[in-house]
Dynein axonemal intermediate chain 7
Amino acid sequence: MERLERQRIEREKWHQLEAKDLERRNEELEELYLLEECFPEAEKLKRDTRLLSQLIEKLRLLLLQTPSYDLEDKTIIQYRGSILELQELLHLKFNVATERLLRQASTLADLDSGNMEKVIQDENVTLYVWANLKKNPRYRSVRFSETQIRFEIPRILATSGIAIRLLHTHYDHATPLRPVSASLQGHTATVTHFVKDEVQKGEAEISKELQEEYKQQECESVSVCEEETKVEEQGDIEVQMSFVQEESEATKCKLEMKLLSEAVFAAQLLLIENANEKPCFCEDNEVDLCQFTTLGGVYHLDIFELPPQCKPMKGWMIVEILKEGLQKYIYPPESTEDFETENAFPPIEVTLEVQENVIFFEDPMVARWDAEGKHWQTDGISNVLYQSEERLITFSLETFGPVTLIQDTHINMPFQSWELRPLDVNKVLLTVTTVFTEIQIQIKENLCMLASVKVDNKKHSSTLEGRWMTPISLILALKETGLNIFPTGHSHFYVVINHKEPLVEIKAYRQLALLSSAFAFGWSKWNVECSSKKVIVKLREHLTEEEPVQDPNWTLLMFSGDRAQRLKINENSETFSEALKEETEFHSTLYHLVKDFASKEAMEKIRSSKCQFIDSVCYMLLSTRLLSYS
């Protein structure tokens, strides 16, 4: 009987538990549903930010890829304005997502610490949020689990209802777009108006010519009709009119191509022109963005006041929403008179992870964003320690805000040597060797690819390897990873260069590109010895895809823009001489010079090269400026 009684009591308890579970099931499931909204919200945030980032990048590329003679000032201003608006919208979305997350901090709290930490990661953005719910003065070290990111906060923050947010964007939307110089705008506008005016003038002349010829043919047609009314002669007149129109169209097309050629040449010349004045910076600690480059994206560090928390109530989540939205916590406060100790607001120690695909050839510097001056500066940062193997950087920060890592833009300039070698028809390999690295870029038709990177003579793996992209896209991607071998118009102020006249340099690059399918070109030590009005390169015919031989038989060529010649000296000669090689002649172009000794197969390869390929090779040569920066 006792056993049956125990069983009855257990059954009653079980039924009571089931009834209680059923009674609160709806409430619990509803609360769980509300809590799990963080998952779709996180995914929505990823999609929105990804879309906005892509739009911003497309506009940036559009500005860079469109030839200068096709861009008007108002179009540039419009695109730049759209980029700024999209950046503001992107930042607003991050703030809204952070506020929603912090409202639920108490329900997402960690069981061990009692505080909340959350990490939302996407391809180009990582969001770290920590909420101080317990306000424990002993809990002064904030570290996000499964990462090395850490904050050492002072006592006053450890006892305050605050939240810390680190938003790491792998791109840099903080640095303002570099303004187009007045001289560049003037040159671009001149070229644009010149092309349009000349084309319109040409069209008017052709139209006038066509009308006159048409009238003449019409008169002849009338006289013929009066004399003879034969259908065959009417047909002859129509054929003649058609011929006149075709001839006029051909003349118009020829004129347009000529003017376009002049505009392209002018635009290419802008790529290698040196600025006349060094940029001026007013602040002592302001970062010179012509001398330094931001790398690894931007780390947006913020401290917020913890918003009112969500409270579950009968299947509902009750939350007070502040009208003013997410509020920043000012640290240190503007006035510190109410605090007794002098060091009540010490700098906050921050440890950040450095982006994996970024290469620093020297220890990076840390810069903070000055929101008022709209520039990066280096004050307010101390105790910087970079651990290269762990890829961690630690520093102390007086006040929170966006920070970034910077490196000397010209750390890989000037170059030690270079080589342009054909791999096949419409396919070449460009190798640039610097003090720290060797970079190989393949160029195929209208695309480029990072083939390999060596750092300190050791193979270095990069996420860019094997990815074909347009020349401008590859240049931007290499710059963003720290592999910058692309001088700007201001680079000559920071690098000792082997100055060459722009017209000579551009003509050389264009003709090297024309010959690149069948000839290998390389750096010559004698290029430094000749004057700025001449360039010297070494050349050899290269028709197969085999690896280059150790000591190839190079020929030295000297080019002045309107005269090309083979030199008597070679790379191993003891002294420099401009003497002409025996049994050779002067030519006006490099193309006609190599015809004297090139094989039929080589010349056939040159003639079969595609225009897109030649243009891509030329653009890469113009962008690296190998003849001036080696």
About this structure: The mean pLDDT is 81.
